[in-house]
Design a protein that fits this description.
disordered N terminus; 0% strand; disordered C terminus; 6 helices; 302 residues; mainly alpha
């Protein structure tokens, strides 16, 4: 009986030693539920993503790309607004130039009418002078023959004097008409020269307007493309860890290339805008502040 109890005791002792050995070789960092709270530690650290460093680098890269694209878009918007203002200014100037041109054309037409009337009056006066010259030529050269024709000396002298005075008046009127004709012709030449200048100015303004309109269309296209690039960068940022890093890196490189191309286009457009602005300044420098020619060069005084 004692041997049996001793064997059982030895068996339990051996089992306790084995349990203790197992606990020593397979210790777990997690405390048992009965452990004190001060001794509690995390059972196991969260698993680390091996691509996290690459994602962090891509996130920083995309943030820089987005900042560059947004700055470029802001400059494009400002340039587009400036071009739009220039288009409106040119449109207004062309409208004013066309009004001046219309006025000059009306004045030239009026001068043509006055010139034609004056030339017709000169022809009439020439005919009257010719008729008086013929009448004087037909007068008798002898005073006695004149007296005999009129009946007395007084009438003969008065008839001769009236004829001479009428002839002188006709000559004077013809001279005044010819002087008026010369003035009208000079006025017309001045109006034609002014009209040519206004047409040339209008043509330059129209050419600048066409160039600015083309530039505005190109700027709008570049701005639209930049908006698309910005949207793609933001999408790539939001879905950064949904794709492998190498895929996102390739997309970032493509977007960076597109951004640089658009930036280069914006520089070229800025140069074009400055070039057009210089030409526009040369044209508008010839115009008064209100866009109209001075009255003495565009409107004939009455």
């Amino acid at each position: 009986m004692k041997r049996t109890v001793g064997a059982l005791a030895a068996t339990f002792a051996l089992m306790a030693i084995e349990a203790t050995g197992v606990g020593a070789t397979d210790a777990s960092p997690c405390p048992s539920p009965s452990s004190a709270s001060a001794a509690r530690v995390a059972c196991q650290s969260a698993p680390t993503d091996p691509n996290q460093a690459a994602y962090d680098q891509l996130r920083s890269r995309l943030g820089g790309d987005l900042s560059t694209a947004l700055s470029t878009q802001e400059r494009l918007s400002a340039a587009l607004h400036q071009t739009s203002v220039g288009v409106q200014i040119l449109t207004d100037q062309i409208t004013r130039e066309e009004a001046v041109i219309s006025t000059l054309e009306d004045q030239i037409a009026q001068l043509d009418t006055e010139i034609a009337d004056t030339e017709a009056r000169i022809e009439v006066e020439k005919e009257q002078v010719s008729a008086m010259a013929r009448a004087i030529y037909r007068q008798p050269t002898s005073l006695w023959m004149l007296v005999a024709r009129t009946g007395n000396l007084h009438d003969a002298l008065r008839a001769t004097a009236d004829l001479v005075v009428a002839g002188q008046r006709a000559h004077a009127l013809q001279a005044r008409l010819e002087a008026d004709l010369q003035k009208l012709q000079k006025d017309r030449e001045a109006r034609v020269a002014a009209l040519d200048a206004e047409n040339a100015t209008r043509d330059r303004l129209v050419a600048n307007l066409s160039a600015l309109s083309d530039l505005m269309s190109a700027q709008d296209d570049v701005s639209s493309q930049m908006s698309d690039v910005i949207a793609q960068i933001q999408t790539a940022q939001n879905g950064l860890q949904n794709q492998p890093p190498d895929v996102t890196a390739a997309l970032a490189a493509l977007l960076e290339s597109q951004t640089q191309n658009l930036i280069q286009l914006s520089y070229q457009q800025a140069w074009t805008q400055a070039h057009i602005g210089a030409g526009l300044a040369m044209v508008t420098h010839m115009l008064p502040a209100d866009g109209r020619r001075p009255p003495d060069s565009a409107v004939r005084p009455e």
